[in-house]
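Session log. Operator J.P. requested a structure for one protein chain; no other inputs attached. Running the standard single-chain path with token output.
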Amino acid sequence: MLPPLVLPDSESYPSTVPREDLVAALDAVDCRHDVNDRLTFGEQSSILTQPANVCAVFFTPGRDDHVPHRERHYLGVIHKHTA
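Structure written below.
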């Protein structure tokens, strides 16, 4: 979620989108994506789409997250890189 000073009416919502599902959807529409090495480490992974420069970061679920597969990575953050 962005700070209120940046986007006053922003909100965050829980996501149940597994990494594999988003990658499959990008592949289905021929959207190129690469592993984002800068944000892939530990219990998180990240991809960067091209040419739009949209970054998606995935995390293993937290203790209170209700997801069907606890070992999978789920979408946690998505943002667009700008120059």
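Operator note: Helices lie at 19-28.
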